[in-house]
Each structure stands twice: as C-alpha cells, then as structure tokens.
Structures
1.
Amino acid sequence: MDDLRDKYIGLIADAADEAAIEDLRVQAVGKKGEVALKMRELGKMTPEERQIMGPKLNALKDEINSALSAKKAALADAALEERLRTEWLDVTLPGRGRRQGTIHPISQVTEEVTAIFADMGFAVAEGPQIETDWYNFDALNIPGHHPARAEMDTFYTHRAEGDNRPPHVLRTHTSPVQIRSMEKQGAPIRIICPGRVYRADYDQTHTPMFHQIEGLAIDKDISMANLKWVLEEFFTAFFGTEVKTRFRSSHFPFVEPGAEVDIQCKWENGSVKVGEGDDWLEVLGSGMVHPHVLKAGGIDPDEYQGFAFGIGIDRLAMLKYGIPDLRAFFDSDLRWLRHYGFASLDQPTLHGGLVR
Ligand code: PHE
C-alpha cells in the first residue's frame, strides 16, 4: 500500500496538465483502478485483517483524491499566472492621437446662408437631384425647343432602346424645387432650397457638380422691392459688412422681369475683396416668378405673385474665404480639407457671429 501511495503521489506531482491528472485519477481511484482492485481483495481477508486494511485503503483513496484536486488547482493557477504575464498591458501608455475631421467649406457656407434666411422667415425645402425634364424645364417655362435647354449643358439619363419615356436629367439648377414647393404647400410660400446641381462644364470656376441655393417667396403683395431688401440684408449678414448690390436687367424664362445681381468688390493682387472698391461681381440670378410658372405649380397668378432667386454657394464660399480654384473643392485632398475646413464645433449662429 505504501508503494501504491508513493507511486501515485509522485506521478501526480509530475503531471503536466489536466489531461494527465484525469488519466491518473482513472488509473488510481477509478472504478477499475488500482485502489479498487485492492478493495476487492478485502473479501478474501479475515475480519481482523479487513478491520485494519479497510480504513487504510479508504484513507489512501482520500489522500490520492486530495492530491489530485490540489494539483489540479495548482495547474489552473499556473495557467492563469501565465496568461496574466503574457497578456499584460501598460494602461498608463498615452493614447494614440486621432485627427479630427473638418467641415467642408460648402457645408459651412450652406449652414451660414440657411441661418441668415431662417432668421428672415424662410424654411428649408428639398427636391431630388435626378429630375424629370418637366420639373427641370417645361414647368419653368422652358419648352422643348427653347435654347436655354441646350445652353444649360444638361446631363441626360440613358434610355434603353424602345423605352420611349422622356429622359430624366441631373437637375441643372435648384429651380425645379420652386414647382415642387408650390405643388406641395400652395401659396403663400417662403422657402430656400440648398442643393447640388449639375452641368457639363469644367474650368477654374466651373465643376460638373456644384451647389445652389434657390429662394422663393410668394404672397399677395410681394414685389421686386422685397427681393432687393432681402438680398441686401443677406449679403450684409453673410459678408459681415455693408455690401452694395447692382441689379442688371437679364432674362431667365421662369421670371419676368428678371435680374442678375452683382456685388461690390475690389481686385487686389489677384484676389478679390467684397464690399470695397468699384468693381462688380455677378453672384446670382433673380426676378419675379413668371405667371406660367405659378400656373404650372397650381397657383393662381391673378391672386398671387412673388420673387425667386438662385445663388451659387460655391462662388460665395470662394469669395468669403478666399479660395481661388473651384475644382479643388471636390478633389478630396486631405491637405486642402485641413487647410480650408472648419472645426466641427465652430458652427455659425447669427448671435455667435457668422464671420471668421
Ligand atoms: N436657375 C437660375 C440659374 O441656375 C437662377 C435663377 C433662379 C434665376 C431663380 C432667376 C430666378 O442660373
């Protein structure tokens, strides 16, 4: 019995892992293990022998069992120690710096313009960038044969052969939202619509995708004087200085009369300053909404009239923040974005100041 004891206590001490422990358990104290075999021999013994050997065997069994569980616990502790050692990490190391993104000048200027018009009671409206040619042209008093349709360098959608539906277009201006707003809410209306527009054109001041803000105000007594006041208020708030405007008579099929609006500026070593000097820079088209357009939108031109305008957002951003080339706006060059971008918490409010 002492041999048995020494053998197993030695083997258990040397066991390398849990599987080895389990093997030893089966061999020593399992149902057919060595201790069980010895137990069976008790039957052949005299009662006196049995009285001595029985408890001894039981004690041996207990001793082996507790050696097994002690070793098992020791192995688990060692495994945990090893994990703690290899998975150690220094929580006092400084974090990795992460660069913050910036607000694109177009987004920034859109927010600024929206804030100014919101203060004058204009709500924001939206429309799809892929339009039917009815909304983009016909409803705006630009019929099929009209030269303006060609002049706009329109992108048309492809139609499969045999598909006779009129094509959709990438909207060439935000003016179709005038019609959609009239249809949706009827008169009176006071909305602006910022959004993307598309024309096949590419040079320093033109990109095939650019941004406009449409304005539309319709009521019973709205006049050109209201248009002039609203735009002058807008420019002064946007540029943070009194800006003189010049209204030049001009033609757009969807307004009558129509005017292009220039703002006062000065050229100084290749860059432009707004609100000084005696040069002029064209920034928008405008006019009194044509009766045909009101009718197309379901509004009675004998009862209502109003003004509309369309401003180029990209042009405004270039002017206000001195950005020379429009094409760079859409190159996604990180150096450009970091240089001209705005801090994300630097959002414009009329009270906090729109001008940086
Ligand atoms: N839609 C015109 C353009 O894109 C601008 C405009 C809008 C003119 C509203 C008059 C009235 O050039």
Note: The longest helix spans residues 47-86.
2.
Amino acid sequence: MNNWKFDTDGDVAIITWDMADRSMNVMTEEVIRELDAAVDKVLTDDSLKGAVITSAKSDMGGGVDLTMLANIKAQAAKEGGNVGEALFGFVWALHSLYRKIEVGGADPKTKKGGKVFAAATPGTALGGVFELLLGCHRRFAADNPKAKLGLPETLVGLFPGAGGTTRLVRMLGVMGAADYLLQGKLVNPKKAKAGMLIDEVVPQEELVSSAVAWVRDAKESDAVKPWDAKGFKLPGGAPYTPQGFPTFLGAIAMTHGKTAGVYPQTNAMLSAVYEGALVDMDNALKIEARWFTSVLMDPRSAAMIRSLFVNKQAIEKGARRPDVPDAKVKSVGIIGAGMMGAGIGFVSARAGIDVVLVDRDQEAADRGYATIEGLLDEGVKRKKVTEEAKAGILSKVNATSDYAALSGCDLIVEAVFEDPEIKAEVTQKVEAVIPKDAIFATNTSTLPITGLAEASARPDQFIGIHFFSPVHKMMLVEIIKGEKTGDLAVAKALDFVRQIKKTPIVVNDARFFYANRCIIPYLNEAMIMVGEGVNPSLIENAAKQLGMPVAPLQLTDETSLELGHRIMMATKAQMGDAYEASLADDVLLKLFESEGRAGRKNGKGFYDYDEKGKRQKLWPDLAKHFPHADEQPDFEEIQNRLILAQVLEAVRAKEEDVLVDIREGDVGAILGWGFAPWSGGPMSWIDLTGPKDVVAICDALEAKYGARFTAPALLKDIAAKGETFYGRFQPQQAAA
Ligand code: NAD
C-alpha cells in the first residue's frame, strides 16, 4: 500500500494513513481503494476484533481531493463517456467503503458478529475525511486546540455527500446538524465533543492506545449504530410525525432564508435530508449519493469549486508570484495608525511580524495601539485568544511618532490620509530612514499608484497594497502595480499577504483599481433606481435573490453615504467636464447633504437604526423625496441591472488589462464584495448565463438606459465566436 500502513496490536488492527507525497492527507481514488482492501483484511481475519483508523501526520486529512473530482469529470467528458456515471462511481465507492466500516461485516438480519472500528484523529479532519470518522463506531480526537473538525463542503459549492449528511442528521437531528451542514461550522476537539460530533478527547500520546483499548473492550452492541438497531427514531422527529413536521418546515424555511434558494448544493442537501429521513440507512445513503452526484454535475457548483477552492488556493499559493527568492516580511512599518493602519498592524503582529506603527504624534500612535488591544480584548472575551497570546502579539507592536524606528523595516505600508501631498511627504520622510532594499506600499483606495510613486526615489520598489475594511475580517487584498513597479515589490507584497493569511489579487494601475471599480457602479445603479422611483424594497430583494449577501442600499449605509459623497465629489473634480452626473448623485446629495443621513455611522441612511445601531426598516421619508413610480419595473430587469453593473465593469477591467487573470477577477469579486458566490464570480456568471444571452440582455438595457449597459467589445467578441471567458483565457478549466 502506498498510502496506508497496516499493523496489529494483538487482536486490534491499526490502519495508519500517511501519504508520502503530500503534507496533508486527502481522499483520492487510490487512497479509497487501499483503505477498502485494509478494511476487507480486518473483516476476513478471524483473529481481529476490529481496527483503529488513524494518521501518522499531525492531521487526519483535508477532505476529498476536489481537483481529482474535476479530473474525473474532464476525463469522462474527453473520452465521450457518461460523466454522471463516472462521478457516481467515485461517490458510491466512498459511500460503500464507509458503510462497510459501519456495518463491520455483521449479519444483516441479527446485526450480530460485526467488527468494531474506532477513528483516532491527531488533528484536523475535514469534509470527506470527517465523514470517514462518522462511519466509525467511536471517534477519538487528540487534545489539539488547533485541530479543526467538521464539514465545510457547503462553503465551496458542495454538501457532505459521503454519508456525512445522512449520519449527522441521524446523530443530532435536523436542527442540531444545521450549523454544521449549512454553514460548514468547524470546531476544535473539545467543542466537537460538547457537540457530540466526537466521543472522546484524549492526550496526543494516548490517542492510538486509547482507541485500541476501546476496540479491545467493545461489546457486541458497540458495533451496531443506533440507526441500524431496532426502533431507531430520528432525533427531533422524522418529517411526517407531529414533532418532526414543524422541525422540517422550520429547517426548510431557515435554509431558504439564508440562501435565497440560489445555491444548488443547499437545495440538494435539503432534499437528501428530507427524503433520507423517510427511509432506512442504506436507502438514505443511496439518495444522498444521487443528490450529491447531481450537485457535482451542476455547472454552478463546478464554477464555485473552481473559484472558491481550486483557484483561490492557486492564487494563495502564488500563481501570480514573480520567480524571485523568498521575500517574507520580518518587520513592517505602518504609517498612519488610524482605522486601516491599526487593522493592518493587528493582522501583521498576529502573524508574528514585528510592527512599527507610526503616526504624527505619540498620542495618535497610542490610539492605534489601543485599537489593536481592543481587537485582542474582543478575542479574549470570545475565548478565541488567550491572555498570553494577547501579550505576545502586543509585544510585537512598537507605536511611536519617531520615523527613525523604521530603520529596520523591510516593508512599509502607508495608511495616512487620502491626500496626495501628505502621502508624498510621508514617502520621502520614510525613504530617508528605511533600508535601500525595503519595499514601500501605499494603502490608498483611490489614488493611482503611478502618480504616488513620483514622490519615491525608488519607484520600482513602490507598490499598492489595498486592504478592505474592516481589515481583520475582509479576506481580499488587492496588490496594484504602478507603471514602474518591479518584480521584487510584487513578490514582497504577495509574500506579506500570504503571511497574514489573506487572498491576494495582482492588478494593474487604474482609477479605483479592480474591486472598487466594480462595487461603485453596483451601488450607483441601486441609487439611480431609487431616483427613478423604483420601490427600494424591490431593489434590495432583487439583489438578495440574486445571491448578493448584502443588498446595495444596505451596503451603501454600511460603507457610509459620506464616503460615497466624498468619492463622487473627488471624481467630479478629477474628471471635470467629462463627468456624467446621474440620478445617483441626486439621491446622494439629497440624503447626505440635505438630510444629513450618513449611513450606519450616524444611525440614519437608506435605513433607520435604533440606539444600539441595529438596522430597522427603510427610511419612510425616502418615498416622499423619491416617490414610487406608478408602474414598477420587472423584477428580472432590476436583477439584470444590478448584476450587469458589476459584471460589465469586471469585463472592462479585463479589456483594459487592469485585471490580468480572470481567475483573480472571479475570486476577488466574491471575497472583495460578495459577488453572488453561487456563480463563481462575474466571468463565471457570464459563462453560466451564456455570453450570447448576456449580450442580448445588454442590448435591451442599453436601448432603455443608455451606454453604461453597452456590451464591451471583449464580451461581444467572445459571444460572436461562440466562446466562453474560461474557454478563451483558462481553457484547461473551461469544463465547469
Ligand atoms: P484614518 O483617518 O482613520 O487614519 C489616518 C491616520 O493617518 C490618522 O491616524 C492620522 O493621524 C495619520 N496621519 C495623517 N498624516 C500623517 C503623517 N503625515 N504622518 C503620520 N501619520 C499621519 O484613515 P483610514 O480610514 O485609516 O485610511 C487611511 C488610508 O487607507 C487612506 O489612504 C484611505 O483611502 C485608505 N483606505 C481606507 C479604507 C476605508 O474603508 N477606510 C479602505 C481601504 C483603504
């Protein structure tokens, strides 16, 4: 066996997983075949009572190899075979193996004589690997607080389809399993035990011996799962019982409330849960496997897996990194200890990087330090950070007004006021004290990098690193190359983003870079509609039913109307006569300038907020200022306007070479502003909708609303040639 070791300790087999060529174990076809053979060996050897399945690595495993799933699909398609059959074959092999472990060779009628299997996980066990644990009769986990256990499949477009859904619902009931299944909630071993996901948490050094001892002492009944025993009742009740009916109704309503019904995997999972609850275990597993295969066949799931798993990982691993030596950051100097600077300081210190946090005077620097302390205190309160860890992180932060303290920094991130003159002055002051080979990055959100680099004596070492607010929560970081930015600066920025465990995209310089450039037209389109008299509730609901996690008027409130107003005024000033005012300007001016409504920050925006800042209903007077039109537009047209405002801007960014790689455009859109994740991102959305159909929608909207909906030449060309975005730019990934 290449991936497993088979030992025995008396009458107990120990099957140990250790893939030679991977740092983390994952389920592949070969792994499954070999484990199947090892299980057969246990079942057919009379001298063995059962087995412990464990791992020689620090973790058990990361799940099913999704790249392999994509390959099975591509291979079957290439050979002209039946793709569904090929995928079902793989899924069913996994199901059969886990069920074989669970039944343990017991007599099907009497349920007697089964072998006992215990799982012993030293660390993390996710997805398809956690489902292996669920198949076993008892689960042991080492007391490793860093370990993560659970079923994150739904977050990448799948659902736990190797028996996990069916087993968890039978263990915890439909409501008890909901957080794990629907939200992919991961927990450490202690919490997993409290939640009844695992049975025992033991010291690392006693992990295997405890599991072996349990197998050795196990009773015959230990080899029979509750759902295989007579009289089993689903916790919380099955669908057609007085107790279960409202539970299932609630679960269905809750799921749709959370997902707007746009995610194929949650709908399929619900069906698997519901239908599975009506039949016995073997049939329930078949149902689950079929629904799971249907999800694997759904192009939306494939697009989600492509963006949220395969490409996100490729980008994080450095798909766009220039080939230069390791440029990890040891000491980062952050200039400006305001909201952004403090946030960047926090995530850097947390990643073990030394931080010099500089502001104009000691008081301002201390405020930044206090912000970091506040974030850590929150972590302590929520038991995510220990007091020792807090002290360790804070000891990495030197808050000062003395620029000389920057002399040892290899990376600078400037986050002072958004004013080119102040930024230029700071650049020169900093460059006078930092090492000659240090990289200087600016966190500007609107000012072109090439212009800011003019203040630098070393423009090849000058770059944009654009964080999103709040820094500690937002996962995307945009890296912006100015005209003269060199490879070393790009590598440094990428290595830094990797160290702080965020996802980078690398784009070229242009007004608003990539993300903001796409978000602004989306928010504007919603405000234009308000100006036209479209009922704001209709706008918000249209966005939500598109699968946008935050509706546009709500998002405008969150980011603040003040910021929207400031951007509008600055753009107007910069563009002069070329600026085209729209109804969005009128709405902004009315709400912010005339009515003093700045958004959530002052408790009044498109929505009203209570004293605690909790969002209430839409501002009733909005309709007085912008009366609802007698005839409201078609819901689908509102949706098309909202999605195309984003999508067309992404296409223009690609056309203008601001966006270099469409994979980054898709991943960046989902992580940066929550672009409908079910679609896999704007380019994937076009491919799913069909480029020709998208052009037709553009033509109709252009005729009605003007040039902002004109299909860009790149889109027209792709449509005219019958191609897709992935077909043209990422041909090996076009199969989704
Ligand atoms: P902020 O006003 O909260 O903080 C700016 C800090 O810079 C203040 O503490 C100020 O005292 C300090 N400062 C000003 N001049 C300085 C100087 N000469 N030397 C040292 N320190 C000086 O602003 P912020 O929201 O943190 O934004 C900072 C930068 O980040 C801006 O360029 C902004 O465009 C950009 N940005 C902001 C956001 C956002 O959502 N707020 C998002 C991305 C990027």
Note: The chain has a mean pLDDT of 95.
3.
Amino acid sequence: MDDRIVVLGTGGTIAGGSALAGDNVGYRAGERTVQSLLDGLVVAGGPQAPALVAEEVAQIDSKDADAAFWSRLHARCLAHLQDERVRGIVVTHGTDTLEETAWLLSQTLACDKPLVLTCAMRPATAVSPDGPQNLRDAIALASDARALGVSVVCAGAVHAPRHLQKMSPYRVDAFASGDAGPIGWVEEGRLRLVHPWPGLRSDPGSLAQALAADNGAWPWVEIVLSGAGANGRQVEALVAAGVRGIVVAGTGNGTLHHALETALLRAQRAGVQVRVSTRCPLGVVVGMPAHGLPLADGLSPVKARISLMLELMQTAPAP
Ligand code: SIN
C-alpha cells in the first residue's frame, strides 16, 4: 500500500523563526519542527490526499551541513525508499547548500520513487512566508508518479540536481537551472513538464554502500578559486596538510592563473586528485584547456567537490 508521503525535516529557513514577524533576514534557521510545518497545511487531494508522516532528521542551518548529516539523511532516505508503504519522500532543507545535498542524494540512491527537496527564503514567522506553498508543491510532486528520482521545487519551479544553482541570497525565487532551465512547474498542485523528466542513475552500486558504511569521515576535498593575483600558497598548504582532492574554480573556459596552475600540477604529481570547473555560472568548459588537468564533468565547483569526495571514498588513500 503506497499511500504515504514521508516528510523529512532537516532545518533551514523554512523552519526558521524570528522574534519580529516582519523580519525576513534576522532569524535563526531550523527552530521549528517539521511536524509544526505540516500542522494546518492544506494539501490538495481532499479525501484522496496522501497520509503525511513527519520525521526530524536534523534541525540545522544548512551552511553547517557536514558528512555526518549527509550520511544520516542518506540512511533515512534509503530506509523510506525501501518501505513499500511509502509513495514518495519530501526533504525540507536550507537553501544555502541545497544544491550539494540534492546532487549527493541523486548520485547515491537508486530512486524508484519521487524524492523532492524543498526550502524557503523567508522564515516560518514571516508576514508572508514562502515555505508553506513550497511544501504543498513538494507534496504534490512527491505524489506524482512521473517525478521519479531526486528533484527540487522552489517558487513553483522544478529543478534537476545537475543544473540547480542558488542565484540570489534574498529573492523568494532563489534558484535557477542555467542553460537547461527548470524541468517544469507545479501549478495548483499539478506538475506541468516543459522538458522530459531526467533519467535516473540506475545503479549507485558501491557508492551507496560506502556512504552507508561511513560515519562521517569523508575524504578531504577543498575548493580553490583562480583569479587575478592568485598564487599557489593555498594549494601548497593544503597538500602539506594532507588534502586528498582539490577542485579549482577556474576563470572562463577553465583557465588558471599560471602560479596556481604550477602548484596544482605539482599537487597532482604528489597524488592529490585535481578537478577543474569554472567560476562562470552558465555553460560548461568546452574542449580541453592547455594545462591538461582533468575537468569536472560540467559540474559547478560545489557539486564537483561532492563527486570527488564520493569517488575518493571508494579509493584507499595513497600510502
Ligand atoms: C539555510 O540554508 O539553512 C539557511 C538559509 C536558507 O534556508 O535560506
């Protein structure tokens, strides 16, 4: 009987509270329980509406998300995906690292049900909070059999994890999907697709096992930025401190300041895995830049970091 939607709470502004009702920025994230977000929420479907089951996974500001948080969330999603009573999963999450969590879950779960992340830009105590509508949209999406796998809904737009990026620190419509655009829209509880639903990652295989077995000690991967006046000192310090991977947000088409490039090539020779992404928010690195360092598969720096951590999780550190 797949008649349940499980709503996993993790904190964020959607569960944020402020002493001043008119204050949209001076609040604490993750103050309210996920059950309190569901209390009184009017969900479409009348008597056919799915049963909602709330579960608190964490109550954090997502800027503080870490490996232990991700391991726990992954484990709870896995358990509910395997429960035949569950039709779909909603995760309430802060906006600040939503794209990392969505990417991580999409790469590590074999999802044959909808798993929808949602969020808010205004706290639950705001005069006009956006969380309740986003949550209603997420529940509608998690009830829709077309929405298989991990997706994100915010301000009515449905995004695929690969393309999702937070674009604004303040606007209610804070996310975009770059050149790809949203997959579709939720309007009055109905999904309107404008692109075919993205294919699922069919077999996360040993990745899921590595994650389930790991209790938070993930491989150390950092992001460095190339720009005018860059140098190699940060990379040298990271290598000396034992970093296992470095993602570099390159300029333009994945180019690097020459001093940083020299340090990164040296780091690679020392056994550190290096991936090159771009600082540009649109498009991907085209062709192969002259430095020859491996590219980040069109991923933004923050998602490339997740992918590299997952890759290194399956590889023993060099002796
Ligand atoms: C957070 O990411 O937890 C706080 C900010 C937000 O949700 O908009």
Note: The chain has a mean pLDDT of 94.
4.
Amino acid sequence: MTMMKKLKMTAAVLALSTTSVVAQEVEVLHWWTSGGEAAALNVLRENLAEGGVGWTDMPVAGGGGSDAMTILRARVSAGDPPTAVQMLGFSIQDWAAEGSLANLNALAEEQNWDEVVPEALQRFSTYEGDWVAAPVNVHSVNWVWANTALMEELGLEQPESWEEFVAAMEAAQDAGYTALAHGGQAWQEATVFDSMVMGVGGPEFYQDSMIDLDPDALGSDMMVEAFERMDTLRGFVDDNFSGRDWNLASSMVINGESLFQIMGDWAKGEFVNAGLTAGDEFQCFRVPGTEGTVMFNSDQFAMFEVSDDSAQEAQLAMASAVMSPDFQVAFNMVKGSVPARTDIPSDDFDACGQLGMAQLAEASANGTLFGSMAHGHANNPSVQNAMYDVITAHFNGEFDAETAAEELVLAVELAQ
Ligand code: GAL
C-alpha cells in the first residue's frame, strides 16, 4: 500500500469518528443464506443501517464458501470487486498477497484490535503486519448436535468415546431413525473429516498431517483409521444424503427425524432460529475423541481496495461495527459462533455458546487450538481443495480407506 493510500484511509477513519451520517453503501459478498445465517446477517445489516450505511446484498449460496470465492475471483478479474467480502483464513492471506485488500491499520489502532483479537485470528486478519480484515466470529467444527427428545426416547446418555458414539447411532438406526443427518457435499464431508483425524490421532497428528502436510502422517495407519471412521459414519446416513445442504441436515435433527449431526456451530444458528433452546430441546457436545481440542474457523470481512471516498468510509464504518463489543454479542448469539474478541463476557450466551467460549479459551491456553482444514484455516485453498476431492471420493465409495490415504499423499503433493 502506498503512503498516499494509507493517508487516505487514515483520513477516512477521522471522518468516520467526526462526521455525522453521509450517504454510504457497502456491497457485501457472502454465503450466509440459510435461515440462521440470514438472521445473523440481518443483525449486521440493521446495525449498519442505524449508522446510515446502506447495504447491497451479494449472496452466493454454498457452505464453506467455495462458490463465493469463485464469484469473487470473477468480479475482481472484471475490475469490479465488491466492497466487503466474507472470507476465511488462508484466502485472506492470498488476496492480501495480491495487493487487493485495503489497509485497516488506522482503525485497528484507534480501536486497539491488537489487544483484543486473539493471536490465532490475527494470524489471518493481518498480512505482513498490516490489518486487512475484521474478524466477526470464531466458529469451531468439532461439534455434535443432538435431539434431546430422541436421546431420551432411546435411553441414551451423552457418548464419551467413539465406541459409545457408534453404539448410540446403532440404537437410533435400529429404532428406525436416521442416526446421522448428513449432507453429501465435499465441504461437509471435509468438515466431518477434521474431527475424525483429530479423534484418531490427537493434536500432534492433526498438526503433522493437516497443517504441516507431512507425507508420512498423511499416508499413515492413523490416516487409514480416520478414513475407516468415515466408512463407519457412512453406514449411518440415510439414502438421500447426496447433495443435501447442511441446514436441511440440521432440520432433520431439529424435527426428530435424526439423532445427530456432526457440524460446525453455525448449525446452532438453525436450532435457535427454529425456536429451540440449547441444553433443553437440543444438545451440543464435542465429537467423541476430540474433547479438549478445538478446530476453529473465523469469518472475517476483508475490504477490497476501492478508490471512492464514500465507499472507503463505508468500509471503515462496517469494520468498526463488526468489531464493536455489543455487536459481537448480538451477532454471535444468533450465528452460533463466539466472539472474535477476548474481552467479552459470556453471560448473555446460551449453554452451547458458554461452553464454546470456555473451551476456546482453554484450548488456546493449552496449545490445542487448531485451524480447521475444511474451512480454510489449516492450509492454502489448493491443498484444501485437493483434500476435499479425496475425502469426498472416498465417502462416495470410490476408494477404500487404505487407497484414500495413499491418494491423499499424492493429491497434497501435487497441490503444493
Ligand atoms: C463456514 C462459515 C460459517 C458458516 C458455514 C456454512 O465456512 O465460516 O459462517 O456459514 O460455512 O455456510
């Protein structure tokens, strides 16, 4: 970023704090299209509207955001980037490396982001020391969502080991229910796979395989076992799983058709949106085998470089709104995630939110907090996509577990 651009952004921050309402507008590209996600997005949209910032919606459906990223690339190539973009982990770094993102340092300094945003998130929100994105939340993927009434009907306690988890699903299946609600899309399989890798091999194995991409770990017996666990799960999904959206899988647990769903805590947004209460009508617990660890992803808003002054002011107004403590509470209670700031009390959150906040802090202190491969926080998008391909091909019966581990080694090697 040139000195001139930096000065302009600083001037815009000053304008933000001193002027009253001006005609500002943000165009926001995002993939928050499910009921719970849309409700959360509305919290942001209304917050901005109160500050006089208009909203042009650019939704691109598709959990995990791959489709949104494809559209983004096309928009940028056409010389027409949206002003603000929902973005995950390594994608933020890639766009920053291309020099496409605005520098938010002046606002970050004024609002002390350095102090309040957890290190694990700053690693993605900053590029070469400059703030390039505002984190709105922290999600984590290693959750099971369970229907309480069904658990009671089947006489089930919360499973505490992989074996108990499998036994619970057997009980549900035997009773004629769909044991595991699942949507057959590559990113959903990858989301589940994160927890299988951690569950089988623990933190060191997750680090070696998913983050450091060590070929020995990727092709190891433990990886074969992770794929075998995917085979086990495959035996508990219904016949119509293929292509199903994740929120429709959540609905199956919500309406009592299905016992469990393994999904990130955006699923909680669906339960809450359906009027259900955490710890009462539905339960949340960590995927058995992954207790004590948290595999996270953080939605951030990256601001694309724009030349128009009022668009720059709107970007800063949005970044400022996103980082405000009150907003972080209001938004994350609806979204199912937890705040991207360390200074927010958990009192207003429901049982799952409070658990999530406590576990995030614990994992961060214990060195057991890891970026989710499935959601772009473990490795770059090309490696991530290569992993998606193998995981989903295996889940759909193309490879057995042993071949899948071999294919994973090859795919990752080629993608680097
Ligand atoms: C994740 C995103 C979440 C949630 C989910 C499903 O990648 O971080 O906010 O929206 O996709 O759409």
Note: Residues 186-211 form the longest helix (26 residues).
